[in-house]
From TrEMBL:
It comes from Drosophila suzukii. Decapping scavenger enzyme that catalyzes the cleavage of a residual cap structure following the degradation of mRNAs by the 3'->5' exosome-mediated mRNA decay pathway. Its EC number is 3.6.1.59. GO terms for biological process: deadenylation-dependent decapping of nuclear-transcribed mRNA; mRNA processing; RNA splicing. Residues 326-337 have a biased composition (Basic and acidic residues). One of its GO terms (molecular function) is 5'-(N(7)-methyl 5'-triphosphoguanosine)-[mRNA] diphosphatase activity. This is m7GpppX diphosphatase. The active site is at 259 (nucleophile). It is found in: Nucleus. Its main location: nucleus. Substrate binds at residues 157, 167, 187, 189, 250-261. It catalyses: a 5'-end (N(7)-methyl 5'-triphosphoguanosine)-ribonucleoside in mRNA + H2O = N(7)-methyl-GMP + a 5'-end diphospho-ribonucleoside in mRNA + 2 H(+). Residues 325-355 are annotated as: Disordered.
Length: 376
């Protein structure tokens, strides 16, 4: 007899959001219009992270009705309706500035809660210094891999999705093949409604691929299927042209079970910086050219101040403090009179080569200058 599957219905949380008590503000991003807060609910021993983010504008919400449509019902929510409250700040010639409050339907704020939050979650959402690490294959084996094996986030929530124990109703598409299959569903960063800010995750069914470092030529069928099937599903479900999508991996990822991020190229999505993201197309191409590319490549990634992995790398090489360039810099040794000619050239050949370098580095004289220059 099969195990009973947990209901996919939305469950009531174990906390009441209105009872959140603030400890401190972790980040306040004025560009993205989001703020991350650290606090508690009923149990002061358990930390909670609450992220508040203004919803992206939907193009349908700025639509206006023609006079003939105004009497029809029901009306769609719009910023330009009779419910709009307007407070004029100033009007100067052709310029006007106002504070407006739209209807209640358009005033929602997206709220994400992580509870109980671990130190890793607090670190992730905090403002701190960032450092670029250049991870060679040797450093990965000696430092990164042992660290992530012993101290990564729990993957229970990922397995709940893959086993249909949670979030089953949110699945956009699934390929159940154990080798090349995956589940496509909305990322927590997306409100699930505004197509303009669409953000999906493709989570593979295979459990033995932690990150880019584990990928090799044997995974090409999986990656190609992930790319094409995702494009087809998104085109069918959301009507988005596949050529308007970016698909990429993070390195380092926030959790170590292979997953791809998908969002429209016109969106300024989190984590799309060159030191963080690796395009799926590029990953496939690299593996086609060299099946063990990601076992041989040096991969840069960013670590935040306070991360224990940063401390481990600091023991290997200076990262936080770079030795100042001063009098202790290595100076080129002066050649002795009887030193061997460099590069195997004779003294005459060295002199000729040096003359050529000087000539190449010297701008051509003008015609007037050339008449007064001394000849060698």
């Amino acid at each position: 007899m099969t195990e009973p599957v947990e209901s996919s219905e939305v469950k009531s949380p174990s906390y009441e959001l209105s009872k959140f008590r603030l400890k401190r503000i972790l980040t306040n991003n004025t560009v993205r219009k989001s703020i991350s807060l650290l606090g508690t609910f009923d149990d002061p021993a358990d930390d909670a992270i609450v992220v508040l983010e203004k919803n992206a504008y939907r193009e349908s919400e700025v639509a206006t009705e023609s006079p003939s449509e105004e009497s029809e019902s029901p009306k769609k929510p719009s910023y330009f309706s009779a419910d709009l409250k307007v407070d004029t700040e100033f009007v100067n010639n052709i310029y006007g500035s106002y504070q407006v409050v739209p209807s209640r339907d358009l005033c929602g704020v997206k709220c994400t809660v992580i509870y109980p939050a671990t130190e890793k979650h607090i670190e992730k959402y905090s403002v701190c210094q960032k450092y670029l690490i250049r991870e060679t294959p040797d450093l990965y084996q000696r430092i990164t891999l042992p660290y992530l094996t012993s101290s990564q986030f729990s993957l229970e929530w990922v397995y709940n999705i893959l086993e249909h124990k949670q979030e089953k109703e949110r699945i956009v598409f699934e390929d159940k093949d154990p080798e090349t299959g995956f589940i496509l569903l909305p990322d927590l960063k997306w409100d699930g409604r505004n197509i303009e800010s669409l953000y999906l995750l493709g989570i593979v069914h295979k459990h033995d691929i932690k990150s880019l470092r584990d990928l090799n030529g044997s995974h090409l069928d999986l990656l190609r299927n992930l790319r094409q099937s995702s494009k087809d599903a998104i085109s069918k479900s959301y009507g988005i042209n596949p050529n308007q999508l970016r698909m990429y991996f993070h390195y380092q990822p926030s959790f170590y079970h292979l997953h791809v991020h998908i969002n429209p190229v016109r969106n300024d999505a989190p984590g799309i910086w060159c030191e963080k993201s690796h395009m799926l197309d590029t990953v496939i191409n690299n593996l086609e050219l060299m099946p063990d590319y990601y076992q041989r490549a040096t991969l840069p990634f960013v670590l935040y101040e306070g991360n224990k992995l940063l401390d481990l790398y600091e023991q290997e090489q200076p990262i936080r403090v770079v030795p100042a360039l001063g009098d202790d810099r290595e100076q080129p040794e002066k050649e002795s009179a009887d030193a061997e000619p460099a590069d195997g050239f004779s003294d005459e050949e060295q002199e000729e080569r040096q003359c050529k370098r000087i000539k190449l580095a010297t701008p051509e004289p003008t015609e007037a200058e050339a008449t007064i220059q001394a000849c060698a």
